[in-house]
Amino acid sequence: MHTLTRTFALAAFACCILTGIVHAAAKPNIIWIMADDLGYGDLGCYGAEDIPTPHIDSIAASGVRCETFYAAASTCSPSRASILSGRYPHELGIGGALMGEGGMPGDVVTIAEILKSAGYTTGLIGKWHLGYEGDMLPNRQGFDSFYGHRGGKIDYFTHRDTAQKIPGSKEGKHDFYENEKEIFPEGYSTDLFTDRAVSFVEEHKQEPFFLFLSYNAPHYARPGVLQAPESYRKKFDQPNPNKQRPIYAAMVNCMDDGIGKVLEAVKRNGLDDNTLIVFVSDNGGDPSNGGYNTPFSGMKWSLKEGGIRVPMIIRWPGKLPAGKTNREIVHMIDMLPTMVAAADLTVPPAAQVRGSDMLPVLKGEATAPERPLFFGKDTVLLGKWKLSKATLYDLEADPQEKSDLAAAHPEVVAKLQALLRQ
After folding, report:
1. What residues make up the domain containing 191?
2. Residues 253 and 395 in one domain
3. In this predicted model, what pLDDT tens digit does every residue of 401-411 receive, in sequence order?
4. Distance of alpha carbon 95 from alpha carbon 195, whole angstroms
5. Same domain, residue pair 261 and 396
6. 358 φ, ψ to 5°?
7. Which of 43, 189, 204, 410 is exposed most, by the fewest CB atoms within 10 A?
8. Catalytic pick from 45, 66, 76, 254?
9. Is the pLDDT of residue 7 over 60?
């Protein structure tokens, strides 16, 4: 769809929506918090014993913890495109992590555009990684404000990205922006993003808002290099068979403290009962950089469960149960329609969304529909069955994917291969 056509479609949609809003403040605020390369086994509420994450755990204690939530891909850019659009990344032309060029087409309808059309103030703080110029920038994809970096990673202190090459520099291009203006704030990026998120909540407490707080933690600053403030490094300065685990733990603990400050800002401003909060990781962790995906095999870059099954927690007081574990299969493509339903809106046809509204499922009032879920061109999940290339697994009996059952169940293989061909 051309950008102009999409603009008219969203404008018409906005008129319909706004005429139905009597009290804009009644719309729930929505905060998405995304970690970068955080493993399934890296949070206390998912079984981690060596990284204190009390603030993230508190979201689970007062909300719903999903055990079977799937990222759209095992790398950054495809997952981020999917969660914002409700579509599969291969439909958007994003097959892997962007490395200084390319991005999500400007005519893709995002959750930010839909909520903005309905009167929400929209903000992105942190990592974008969906485009470096023109219509691919966040301010042109529905976000009223952007504060962070365009690329996939930055040095946490100098804010440079080695993937964005510039002549004569091993550190790469400086990558920190406020909207589309390059800025040069001083400080550790996790703390900078936390402080700006607290300010965003304070500034927009009188109106419905959508905040996408997209931390770059605990992603490496550059290959093999993790960074944390000295005060956090000292807390975890002890021998570990995984040499990267202590500093990785420091990074996660620092992010958790930042999330605690955001939660406190929500509470301090009387927004708790009318704010829907989601915490999610964009893909699985990388053990070589300190991440754990316990109890699954595989890792970031892999379509094993450890690469695509990620932590997801959602809290909405009075609307979702507290302290519950949900074992239904939910996917990133479901997030857009679920949030739109939470805001009592309708997904516009122009969005071409592939996912489903999972609010009844998260409430425990319904089971998730059995449907095929696709990961790239050669992996499909249907119920308990997962076909990856020519390998078949029963995830209910074998979540670590140790036993290939393709020879024992050729009819299942044929069914899933047909779905992939379609």
Report:
1. 3-369
2. no
3. 999 999 999 99
4. 33
5. no
6. -105, 15
7. 410
8. 76
9. no
Q: Which two tokens stand for residue 62?
A: 């007062």
What does R_g of the chain's alpha carbons equal in angstroms?
A: 20
Residues facing 66 on adjacent strands: 312, 326
Residue 45 annotated as catalytic: no
Residue showing tokens 């099954």:
309
Kindly state whether residues 239 and 384 are assigned to the same domain.
Answer: no
pLDDT over 70, % of the chain? 94
* Residues whose CB is less than 8 angstroms from the CB of residue 30 and which lie 6 or more positions away in sequence, other chains included: 115, 120, 209, 210, 211, 275, 276, 278, 339, 342, 343
| Residue 159 is a catalytic residue | no
Q: Which residues in 208-367 belong to E strands, given as ranges?
A: 209-214, 275-281, 312-315, 324-326, 330-331
pLDDT-derived band at 257, boundaries 50, 70, 90: very high
- Mean pLDDT across the stretch 332-349? 98
Token code pair at residue 115: 């909520």
Structural domain ending residue among the three candidates 369, 399, 414: 369
Write out the H or E segment, with its range, that includes residue 182: strand 181-182
- Cβ neighbors of 24 (< 8 A, separation 6 or more) are 119, 207, 208
CA distance 166 to 164: 7
Q: Angle 223-228-233 (CA atoms, 0-180°, nearest 5)?
A: 120
Structural domains counted in the chain:
2
Task: Give the Cα separation of 263 and 257 in Å (integer).
Answer: 10
85, 221: one domain: yes
Q: Give the mean model confidence (pLDDT) for residues 285-300.
A: 97
124 and 263 co-located in one domain: yes
Confidence of residue 94 (pLDDT cuts 50, 70, 90): very high
Do 332 and 416 share a domain, yes or no?
no
Q: Among 352, 369, 386, which residue terminates a domain?
A: 369
CATH number at residue 342: 3.40.720.10
Catalytic residue among 45, 55, 129, 204: 129
- Nearest Cα to Cα of residue 114 among 216, 203, 231, 208: 208
- pLDDT at residue 323 above 70? yes
Same structural domain for residues 305 and 346? yes
Query: Is 216:227 a contact under the CB 8 Å cutoff?
Result: no
Query: Does residue 159 sit in the same domain as residue 255?
Result: yes
Tell me the C-alpha distance between 15 and 225, whole Å.
49
Q: For 103-116, how does the pLDDT look when each residue is reduced to its tens digit (9 = 90+)?
A: 999 999 999 999 99
Distance CA 302, CA 286 (A): 10
